[in-house]
Amino acid sequence: MQQNKLIALAQNSEAFQQEPETIQAYYYQRKRWAKGNYEVILDNIHHVFKRKSNWRIKLEVLYYTSTFFWFNFAIIISNFLFIVNLFAMII
User: Fold this and answer.
1) N or C: more exposed end of the chain, with fewer CB within 10 A?
2) Nearest Cα to 55, choosing from 63, 69, 65, 68?
3) Distance between terminal CA atoms of the chain?
4) Contacts by residues 40-46 (CB-CB < 8 Å, ≥ 24 positions apart)
5) 57 vs 55: CA distance, rounded Å
6) pLDDT tens figures, 32-87
7) Helix, strand, coil share of the chain (percent; to 5)
């Protein structure tokens, strides 16, 4: 993308995924994924502010960053509402 080339799409590609077998393994998997997402964002956010960066890269970085942070914001709001409703039910 940095060289103004398009990326090919493989229509018939297949991917396999093995699910974690325990809650602890699931937790650590999600923790690794979150850390990786933050690293991807921090490593690529500079493309948004470069004048000579390809517009496709800028769009991809902005899209990825916004969806990731909106998702995290929604989780925090959801947890807050859960705790408030829990206290309301107890009271």
Assistant:
1) C
2) 63
3) 56
4) 40/64, 41/65, 41/68
5) 5
6) 988 998 898 888 888 888 888 888 888 888 888 888 888 889 989 999 999 999 99
7) 70, 0, 30
